[in-house]
Please model this.
Amino acid sequence: MDADAVRERARDLPTEPGVYQFRAGEATLYVGKALDLRDRVRSYADPRSGRIRGMVERADRIEFAVTDTETQALLLEANLIKRLRPRYNVRLKDDKSYPLVAFSDHEVPRIEVTRDPEAGAVAYGPFTDVGRVETVVKAVRDEYRLRGCSDHKYEGRDRPCLDYEMGICSAPCTGEISPAEYAEDVAAARRFFEGETGVLADPLRRRMEAAAEANEFERAANLRDRLEAVEAFHGEGGEAVSDRSDDRTVDVLAAAVEGDTARVARLHSERGQLVDRSRHRLDAAAVEDADGGPSSADANTPAAVLAAFLAQYYAEREFPDAVLLAERPADPDVVDWLEGEGVAVRVPGAGREAKLVELALKNARKRGGRDDPVGALGERLGIARPERIEGFDVSHAQGTAVVGSDVCFVDGSAETADYRRKKLTERNDDYANMRELVRWRAERALDGSDDRPDPDLLLIDGGDGQLGAARDALAETGWDVPVVALAKAEELVVTPTGTRRWDDDAPELHLLQRVRDEAHRFAVAYHQTVRDEVATVLDDVPGVGPETRRRLLRRFGSVENVREASREDLIDVDGVGDATADTLRERL
Model:
């Protein structure tokens, strides 16, 4: 596949979590997981290494499966890699940059957040949000009292440690709990990480409600925050799609029909774990009525499609123990045939099996199309589809610690690897600061020092003044990129041709708001970092307290200017005497 073929395929993919495969004939070259399938697959149009470029060129197609959550994508990816052993996963799979949750391989396992689990450990992840992972592990320890100590601290103890006193460890080290009871707690905790949110969320919710009823509002608020992190950990839905107590092989099937084309999605589960999936296309000619006659419009339904698929698919394959279906097949003879072969055929209505069927339906219906706020934004602004948007904002404190942010969204999703930030000239002038920031980006784009692609649209956080400053920078440099601004107070879209108020529920407005808010967040976070660095440098000087630091920065504008000031100028600042001036010059 070449770059254009990858981009074309990516356009058809959904912007949801899932697993993708690069295939060549019958071989799977690479399996990957993504929070956003479309965005991730599109990145292969510009491979970052020769190895990946070779893999893309060998591939003749890309297949995918959507999942409800990132965790399900991770589990399915891991199982597919184990099952298919793709050549290009050998070196790329082991990514130590993200944390995992690991249960050590001991009679009394410990739980830990780690980037490099021990041999034999059962690990879940990787996860991208370290803070959330740590919050969830604290909740797990608080509920199931699992040990988190090293082997060195665990062995040879004659009394429990502080974790026991705090109620976050049941102290198996000193026999306060039996190994069998501890193993039950470990099993419950592992069920949570395998997708069963309720085993942790339900007791947390009960404790939160009890604290609120007892007027322990601070404790209730803490438990509420922890509950939110737990419920968000697996994304939508709390029912598990994994069940290690289920030792059957199960196929889950669902069909979707569009015109003369039908798709059947198949999920395959072994011992309660999703290990494979496939999607199959059937033309209308392949679908027959229940009586075996030619297909008709009425027969071209999901029920008829399932009947045709079941007969054709299992005629030459090994039967599973059970088949779960989204609806009853139109041909009862097909069901009788399967049941005669010992296959349990069911249309589940609730529980884990129904959750699996919902997931199969989601895969069957997915063909990449859904509301397109990026396209709507382009149409609204009269420009080509702005697939790549960069947002800019400036943050400072009365002209000190002045910084700018440049965030990037690709096809509506944040591309954090392409975020940039810059320290700006110390001055209390928002327009000049924005002009400097945009000019910096434009000059780097024009001289080739910025390795990112040019954006399709620039979004400025602000109103007419900030937009005018950005346009001045573009005109001065000759960088030809469309630019608009979004004002916070009334959420007005400011363009070079006028100011517009879009409907509050317009998806294109929501897209601009996400970019604007992210640019603001990123700028403020960097400003706080720079401000804290400034405070630390001056506060380390004996004789300079918070008030004197404020006076120095108000007078000179920056630490650099304080460093360059003469002794006489320093003494002119109220609160700075001879000794402090000498110390400042010496230390800075």
